[in-house]
Each structure stands twice: as structure tokens, then as C-alpha cells.
Amino acid sequence: MANPLSLYIHIPFCAAKCPYCDFYSLSEVGGDLVEEYCTALLRQGETLAPLAMGRSVETIFFGGGTPSQLSADSIIRILVGLGKSFAISPTAEISIEVNPADADTAWFAAIKSAGVTRVSFGGQSFNDTALAALGRRHKGADITTSVQLAQSHGLDTSIDLMFALPKQDRADMLASLAAAVELGVGHISLYGLKVEEDTPFYAQRHTLCLPSEEAEADMYLAAVDFLAAGGYAQYEVSNFARHGLECRHNLNYWQCGEYLGLGTGAYSYFGGVRFGVERDVDRYVGCDDFAISAPIYCDHEPISPAESAREEIILGLRLSRGVAVERLPTEQVEKCVAEGLGKVSEGRFSLTPQGMLVCNRVIGEMLVSQK
After folding, report:
1. Which of 54, 203, 241, 314 has the lowest CB atom count within 10 Å?
2. pTM of whole model > 0.85?
3. DSSP state of 115
């Protein structure tokens, strides 16, 4: 697809804030604010739509926050409004993030009828003790129930899981992966827990009993092998899918495609410029000017051709398809192959699972050697 365009819709509302989360989100908000926010989203979309010049929107992703905090009517309202402003492809992938504690069969039926094609569940673990420690509202059984409900309505399903959790061992992580595989989801994302500053977990970091770096590495490599045996190909450092069920929206990011971000805290990459919306929901809902030059936007960063080329390498090396070998320094390619961190096939260099485990170091060495 030439020149595909993606839309990201940030929904900043949560029933409660998880202690490890550093995304912009708000809890305990009233229904009036939610409706005002949806109105502002559509106002921003209508303002930015002329930039797309009729280009086809191939993916839409509702992220957060917790998008499943929205009623089905609100989701339908947003999608109908976006359809009036943008040329949305009839084969568009439309994804929404869901907390397993939120949705019911009527909600899934309604969003499916509105055009949603894919549901991404924030499962994190099937272990109830781990879920409680992570501050999650759901239990392992809720993941099973919600996934099966979504599947019964013909929705593609994905589960986000975390590893290297406090007091977690490899067996516990593999048990969660086995539960996800047993459900027959098409896509699994697996992220190592990162203790970010300005979160409750950061204040507790010395008492969290996190696995060692060696144990975390062992978990990751065991997960790659386990998912491969279950029919899930690793197509990105943290993402695995059955054939044809890769997340098209995220692939557009990783392949340096253009996207427009709607909502407070959302970022866009369009016309060679990366820019964001300020993290202030009150200012956002009260904004009457969403033109790109308006004060509501921040962090305008023009991306030069040289910077774009570097980003293509950085993001491309995170993907299993890798990067054309002629774009990389020969010495570093040979070094990675010799160390078992990379391989060359059909003119492309890509990282092995061992290389993906240390991808930030490998990518850094590649870029330094290019200078």
C-alpha cells in the first residue's frame, strides 16, 4: 500500500492508575468530561483531516489509558465522526485496547458492528497474585472470559503479557504464555517490566524482588522458543503473531510510516515533522484551535533525511525482517554474525533472538560505526 496513513486515538481515562505505568492517564473522572473529550477528539480530527488530502487511513488504534472505559456509544460516535473526516479504507485494521475487567458481550457486539476488527487485552499475567501486585483490576479468569467473548463476535484478539515481574520465575511466565496460546489468540506482545521514574514502583524499586538480569534474559529466550513451538513467529523484539495476524498499526510505526495522533498526550509523525499534544485534558477539551501551528501542540521536531535514515535502521533492526545489509557497516555485521547476535539472508541483516535481547546495544554500535 503506497503512502498508508494511520490514526492513533489516545483515551486517557482509567478506573485506577497501575503502580508501574508512566503513560498519561486520569482516574475518577465524570461522564461529562468523557463526552467533552470525545467532542474535542472529533474537532481535532476534522481540523487535521485536510492534511491527509484524501489518503486512505489503513489503521486506527485506540490506546490509553483504558479505551474500554468508554461506552460502546462513545466509540461508535468517534468512528462515525472520523469516517466523515477521513477516507477510511474498507479493509482498515481498527484496534482497541481493553482491560479484561471492563467489557461484556453487548459491548463487543456493538464495537464490532461499528467497524472495530481487533481487540488488544492488557492481560499482563494469568497469575492472580502477580496481577494484584501490579495493581490490575482483573484476575486471570477474566482474561479468559473476555478473550472468548471477543472471539465469539469475530474479533481478532491479542494479549499483552509482562515478564520479569516481582518474584516471578520462568515457570510462572511460561504458564501465562501457555494460557494465552491455549485461548488461540492471534497475537501476543511480551514486555519486560521497566521500573520508570515518577511511578510508585520506582519508589519501591529496592524492595520489589525483581529477577536478576540473567534470569530476565533466560525468561525472554525461553518465551521466544515456547511461542515459536506454539505457532507464533517473532516479528519484532516484543511481538509475536500467527501468520497474517501481525499488528498492522504498529508495523506502520516501525516502518517509519506516517500517522496522526488525536487526543491529549498523543504524538504524530507527518510531513517530516514529529509533534505532540500537550498532556492537559482540561486544556484539550477547551481548545478551539487544533491547527498544527496552535499552542496546544508541543515538541515540534523536524526530521531531516539523515535522521530519517537513522530511524529506519533503529526501528528496522527491531523487526525480524531486518535491514538491507548494504545500509549497515560491514565490520559490525560480521561481528554480530560471529557472535550469534545476527544473521544475513537474502541481502538483509536481522537480529537473532539473542541479538534482540541486547538490541539497544547492537543498534548503538551499528550507528556509531556509521559515523
Report:
1. 54
2. yes
3. T
